[in-house]
Design goal:
The chain has 651 residues and is mostly helical. The chain contains 32 helices and no strands.
Length: 651
């Protein structure tokens, strides 16, 4: 799938592959249409398969056909293919041609910036990124890329400056916090680096770069082998296949042998081990160390926090207090944790996150009244702090104040629509506490549509079946379709076989789908299909929208067409299997899941649903056991793994 900006797992040198932009459907379009369009579609398919020579050839033919796709998107694809083949001059020419056709085309401009950075033309790269940032000021990606460029060049202060700016736009983004930690480490402030990495882990406890970097710092800078080992194990649990997993295992083995501490090559420093967010080792840096730093304790960190607060630096103090509280929690010392959080609330009275953390501690220890007070104070300071809204909702529900809980959960969903816990708790509140069947069903449906991989989706469907007997249907989540880049604001016209018209209709449908204007979305998806019946993604999204509206028959028909057009479209086959299960067509659902596993043997979700289906029938218990065991083998840390293990124990 095409993405509008660099993903956190992408390497800078392969940035172009994630910046294709354009119309998502082109990746999955059929082979029909005029010669130029056929060449373009074929090029996209070859690019996605990694056949860059063939992809480049197809894009060149497409562009030079009389009816060719001579637009910014096609030239951008051509540039990406050329860069993949290390044909840098051709790549630059293609990106520049793309920008000549559409001067404000962000994807090509961003790729050209990356190409300049890779070639050492930093000033030009920065200039392009500044243009992107000026045009789309809400985005942090240009700032993040500039930060990475500065990190690679070891210009730590410049990196720190732009990453701090990025952090003001996304205050809780682990990837930004991790990059900023590396910049702080480069300036020699390992204490600040540790605090930032802990803050990243507060927001995502399993974020691999933060776990790995923190482990390395504790090992090499503070000689805290126990804490380093704990973090390395957490890293391996979170990312067992990560490119640094083998190194982490070796470091763990070394930590178990005090007589053989981990060696660092004489020509490199500890920083060459750090797991940079882009998954590429940071540049070698000489780090002068003249003395050994003793391992930090909860008390010493708290003292540093107090000192920061007394100098008026409460944001920095907050980070240190949270680090100290987190360490106390990991040491299972709740008394010390409470003392730290109470002290933090006194010294950082203007920091909402501190009050939210104190509220969560009080709530976890059964002090509901104190928790409510702390959460309310947090929201006075920051009305959009989602953890405080969630905590307030939890505390209010425990005291029977369901109206207050409802207000808080609605606010959490409003401020963070991608927070699965917020929407799930809202659905549960409507369902269990308020008895609002309609609102509960709507929330469960929305949850299933938005959070594809969440194991609670099956539970949501069970509740939908109970709330709406005879009418509930599995509300299947859409695959992540990307921001429209090329679209025409045209009204519906007479339908004629025309792939370009199909693309335009598809883009319009996506707009309506994103606005939840389902009927209009359906109309335009059908227009797209009428112009190009081989457009698998249009069939798939039509199924999603129909399912969202409760039209199970329409959804099923659309998914069946999608897999007919593109048999390896796993998402469509998976959704079809779930619909068949809801229709009690057990054998047909199992057949679809088996086909998924034939194509993708490591599809853990398919094994889970297969086990779920077989577990409903006492005669197929052994098959359920087999499927569940395979699921646990592939996804031992899945959120649903504990329930599966419990079922296996009982059977």
């Amino acid at each position: 799938m095409m993405r509008p900006f660099l993903g956190e797992q992408a390497v800078m040198r392969t940035l172009l592959g994630t910046m294709l932009g354009g119309v998502t459907v082109m990746l999955l379009a059929g082979c029909g249409g005029a010669p130029g369009e056929r060449e373009f579609n074929a090029g996209v398919k070859e690019y996605e398969r990694g056949n860059f020579v063939r992809a480049k050839s197809h894009f060149e033919k497409s562009i030079h056909q009389p009816d060719g796709a001579t637009d910014a998107v096609a030239w951008n694809y051509l540039g990406c293919s050329a860069w993949r083949l290390h044909q840098l001059t051709d790549a630059r020419d293609a990106f520049e041609a793309s920008l000549r056709l559409e001067a404000g085309y962000t994807a090509a401009q961003y790729n050209l910036a990356a190409l300049n950075a890779a070639g050492g033309n930093i000033s030009q790269a920065i200039a392009l990124l500044l243009q992107v940032g000026a045009r789309e000021p809400a985005r942090t990606e240009p700032l993040e890329m500039m930060g990475q460029i500065y990190l690679n060049r070891q210009t730590w202060l410049e990196a720190r400056h732009v990453l701090l700016e990025a952090l003001t736009r996304t205050p809780h983004a682990p990837r930004v916090l991790t990059r900023l930690a590396l910049a702080e480490l480069g300036t020699g402030d390992s204490r600040r680096a540790v605090a930032l990495l802990n803050q990243a882990l507060d927001d995502d406890a399993k974020y691999p770069p933060a776990l790995f970097n923190l482990a390395i710092i504790y090992q090499q800078f503070y000689h805290d082998k126990i804490q380093a080992a704990v973090l390395l194990r957490r890293f391996l649990e979170a990312a067992p296949q990560d490119e640094n997993a083998a190194l982490a295992r070796q470091l763990l083995a070394d930590l178990g042998a005090p007589s053989a501490p981990p060696a660092v090559a004489p020509t490199s420093s500890v920083r060459s081990l750090l797991h940079v967010v882009t998954r590429r080792a940071a540049p070698t840096v000489t780090v002068a160390r003249t003395e050994t730093v003793a391992p930090r304790t909860v008390e010493s960190i708290a003292q540093e926090a107090v000192a920061e607060a007394e100098h008026g630096r409460t944001p920095q103090a907050m980070i240190l207090f949270l680090e100290a509280a987190g360490r106390a929690e990991r040491e299972q010392n709740s008394a010390t944790q409470e003392k730290v959080l109470t002290l933090a609330a006194q010294h950082c009275f203007d920091q909402a996150r501190i009050h939210a953390a104190l509220g969560r501690f009080q709530l976890d220890h059964g002090r509901t009244t104190a928790a409510l007070k702390a959460f309310k104070q947090a929201l006075v300071l920051d009305p959009k702090l989602v953890p405080a809204h969630l905590g307030l909702a939890d505390a209010a529900a425990r005291t029977g104040e369901y109206d207050a809980a409802l207000v808080a959960l609605k606010a959490a969903v409003q401020y963070d629509p991608q927070n699965a816990d917020a929407l799930w708790q809202l659905a549960q509140l409507y369902d269990r506490a308020l008895g609002s069947t309609e609102h509960a069903a709507t929330s469960y449906r929305q949850f299933a549509r938005l959070f594809t991989g969440d194991p609670r989706v099956l539970k949501a469907q069970e509740r939908l079946a109970a709330l709406e007997p005879g009418t509930a249907r599995r509300q299947l989540p859409a695959t992540k379709t990307e921001k429209r880049v090329v679209a025409q604001e045209t009204a519906p016209a007479a339908v004629a076989a025309n792939p370009l018209a199909a693309v335009q209709a598809y883009n319009r449908a996506r707009e309506f789908q994103q606005r939840q204007e389902w009927d209009s979305a359906i109309g335009y998806y059908r227009r797209a299909i009428a112009n190009n019946p081989g457009m698998a993604t249009a069939w798939f999204n039509l199924g999603v929208v129909n399912a969202t509206k409760g039209d199970a028959a329409g959804a099923r028909d659309a998914y069946e067409h999608a897999v007919k057009v593109q048999p390896d479209m796993i998402a469509a086959r998976y959704n079809l299997a779930l619909l068949l299960r809801e229709a009690h067509e057990r054998a047909a659902a199992v057949a679809q899941l088996r086909e998924i596993l034939r194509q993708q043997p490591d599809a853990a979700a398919a094994y889970y649903v297969l086990g779920y289906i077989h577990a409903d029938d006492p005669l197929s218990t052994e098959q359920a056991k087999s499927a569940y065991r395979k699921f646990l083998e592939l996804a031992p840390n899945d959120p649903n793994a504990a329930n599966v293990r419990d079922w296996l124990t009982r059977h």
